[in-house]
Design brief:
79% helix; 71 residues
Amino acid sequence: AMKIIVLLAVLFAPFAAQETANAASPEENYAAARNAHIKALQAANARGDKNQEALHDRALADLDRAAPPSA
């Protein structure tokens, strides 16, 4: 059983490394979240949503948490 586990680990290690290499950076994650919030706010504005200020506040809080660490 241990040989099988080691063999599977060796076989799948390159795939795990590839997945890690393709992971988005914190900056990319932040930009994606920002763009999603902008789209949601634009849609709320277009339909005349009365909760735009609350949506904006939630977006700011979310983006503050998602912000990449500063240098």
